[in-house]
Amino acid sequence: MIFMKSNRDAPRCGFSRTLIQIINETGVQYDTFDILTDEEVRQGLKEYSDWPTYPQFYVKGELIGGLDVIKELKANGELESTLKA
Fold it and tell me: What is this structure's pTM?
């Protein structure tokens, strides 16, 4: 699940757009949630995850991280195994 500004078809920030592109390259199925539509979710996730920015990427309910973490996992060849964990 990717919590982001807007959705996978029309990301509203460059970080979200880049994250979507990277995840799309893996072929893994995922959903998105537009945090701009629900302020309670937007603020609540920041507290829940202790991660202040968006996008936030979760696998099986566990925060993996934001764009920088996903880029690092990809560069290290660990992204696909993390997504399929």
Answer: 0.92
